[in-house]
Amino acid sequence: MMFNPLPLLPLLNGSLSSTLDCWQQHPAKEMQLPPIIYKECREIIAQIHVGEKSLAPLVFSRSSSAGFKVPESWQHGSCVVTIDVKGNDAHETSTFAEITKRAFSLMVECVIKEPHLGGRSFVGDHDGLEVLLFGLEPGRESYCVLLVRILTVKGTVRES
Known about the structure:
By secondary structure, this protein is of the alpha+beta class. Helix content is 24%, strand content 25%. The chain has a 6-stranded antiparallel sheet with strand order 4-5-8-7-1-9, with helices on both faces. The chain has a 3-stranded mixed sheet with strand order 3-2-6. Helix 1 runs antiparallel to helix 2. The radius of gyration is 15 Å and the shape is globular. The protein starts with 20 loop residues before the first strand and ends with a strand.
């Protein structure tokens, strides 16, 4: 039987008070983000590197010599979790436990609550590792990823 750490995440290292930015839906005539299904997010977050090695600090970077090369994504159904650093030469030290906790916080604040679109936050020693949670619409995957990237660049988020 596999241990599920998700119920313990809110108890680990503080509360959900860190900065979480939830996506806002554009006006109806503009490109739209698809809503996310909570159960699908819960499933994928539970699969992000858990276990005793999840507490080990790693250097996340786009470099091939990184402890963990980014960007990296996990998907289940309509829900996607992506991690990336802020630029090609950037690096950040963090743990998979911290990434999992932040993805869980995003799910609680930006998926369970309306408008159910996901959001963005940062983890790491210098908040340099971006954690994105967003939805995919079948057959329009590249469209959804592009729209999230546009929103990230334009800063079209609301603070929770």
